[in-house]
Design brief:
single chain; alpha+beta; GIY-YIG endonuclease; Ribosomal Protein S5, domain 2; Alpha-Beta Plaits; 3 domains; 32% helix
């Protein structure tokens, strides 16, 4: 296992960004040229203010997670090498301690309290900023609902949420897409969140139902979880912005829910369960900056950061199919088809683990092809390669709801040409997608 480095960057707005890597020179250069992370991309220039070396990259990951949970004061003490003061600063002073932190294997005591909020909240005057990562599920689709171990990755793309105080007793909401175009606007009465006005993109698939009503449900749920949320005689202006095209399916809803949970100081997993439903892996991706193993154990989400930077990464691509799938219907079909069938959870969990340990592209291809076959038997759908890409020279794996959004493919420099000739323009190299 390679060496690892933990680093802290100071951004142009004075906030800190913590990360880990196996190649510190390359990673810092990526941050400085804007390709390292969305958080630093929007806060250039950045300066390296702390660096720590480890003999193993997994040890560096653990250290990164520890530092991310620290207060700013404690991070400053670390940067200034004031080690004697660190124990005194270990007590968590954040009143929004998430319940799910105790379920995370990396959380060892109070110093890791509320790491997701700590790293993404930035107060600037009366403005609050939140950010959540997008997601892709590389393995364990459908079966993760019943306890199989899944491999998921947070993406370089995500969603911002900015909250500003206003004098009017209204909640004014504006949502922008990646091109800075407004696709949804609404106004709610602060006293009861009654919808006063709503406008949205007429061509949006979401417009089949009131987006404001869905948002209202999420906000009401957050209020029930924290009665102090949105209790104000004045109001708020909220602006959200995606850093990926809305149709890509990288987590428009999950990043929103995680951002609202941070703002409301509630458990994002519980908010998801009470509003949208689902396994929760997308919330875990929203809160983590590294690939993760995700598993539901005794109805509780278990999250474990994992090293996943394969030596054959240059042979991996994500292809956007532009075929929107209804995740809820996909889950419903899975629930119906699994009845009376022997589900091979152990096989899927094994594949998830082995995907991070592969040393060759051939081994990786065998794993994802086996995964496709196992899931195909359960949901009674043909693998996407059989349906669309039967003549493709590499392996193809569905991600998430089968048949839509992205697929993971193995290949070479000819891969983008193949898919673009078939009409699939968005072919993204692995390194450009994974955080």
């Amino acid at each position: 296992m390679p060496k690892g480095f933990v680093y802290i960057l100071e951004c142009s707005d004075g906030t800190f960004y913590s990360g880990s890597t196996i190649d510190i020179k390359v990673r810092i250069k990526q941050h400085q040229d804007g390709s390292g992370a969305n958080y630093t991309k929007k806060r250039l220039p950045v300066i390296l203010v702390f660096l720590e070396e480890f003999q193993r990259i997994d040890d560096a990951f653990y250290r990164e997670k520890q530092i991310q949970g620290w207060s700013r004061e404690k991070k400053e003490a670390l940067i200034e090498k004031e080690y004697d003061t660190l124990p005194k600063l270990s007590e968590c002073r954040n009143d929004s301690h998430f319940k799910n932190v105790a379920l995370t294997p990396l959380s060892h005591g109070k110093e890791n309290c509320n790491s997701a909020v700590e790293r993404s909240r930035n107060y600037k005057g009366n403005e609050m900023r939140f950010y959540s990562n997008g997601k892709l599920l590389l393995s364990g689709e459908y079966l993760v609902l019943d306890g199989a171990k899944a491999l998921a990755i947070p993406t370089k793309y995500g969603q911002d949420l900015i909250v500003s105080a206003i004098q009017e007793p209204s909640l004014v909401w504006e949502s922008l897409d990646v091109d800075n175009n407004y696709w949804f606007q609404a106004e709610f009465r602060m006293s009861d969140l009654r919808i006063i006005d709503e406008t949205f993109d007429a061509e949006s698939e979401d417009s089949k139902e009131s987006i404001a009503t869905t948002l209202q449900t999420i906000l009401h749920t957050a209020q029930n979880m924290n009665p102090k949320f949105l209790v104000s005689e004045t109001g708020f202006h909220v602006k959200t912005q995606l850093t990926f095209p809305r149709k890509w399916g990288l987590g428009t809803s999950s990043t929103l829910i995680n951002n609202i949970a941070q703002w409301a100081k509630v458990d994002a997993f519980e908010l998801l369960h009470k509003s949208f439903g689902g396994s929760g892996y997308d919330i875990a991706c929203a809160q983590n900056n590294t690939p993760i193993y995700y598993q539901i154990v005794d109805n509780n989400p278990m999250v474990k950061p994992v090293y996943f930077q394969p030596s054959f990464a240059e042979q991996l691509y994500f292809v956007y199919l532009n075929i929107k799938q209804d995740s809820k219907k996909g889950i419903q079909r899975y629930q119906e088809n699994k009845k009376g069938r022997q589900l091979n959870f152990e096989a899927i969990s094994f594949i998830s683990e082995q995907m991070t340990k592969c040393e060759s592209i051939q081994e990786f291809e065998k794993l994802i092809e086996t995964h496709e076959q196992e899931v195909s038997k359960i949901i009674k759908n043909k693998p996407i390669k059989t349906i669309l890409f039967n003549d493709y020279f590499g392996a193809v794996k569905s991600l998430g709801a089968w048949g839509g959004d992205f697929v993971l493919v193995t290949g070479n420099e000819n891969t983008p040409v193949y898919f673009k000739e078939k009409g699939f323009e968005a072919v993204i190299p692995f390194k450009d997608m994974i955080l």
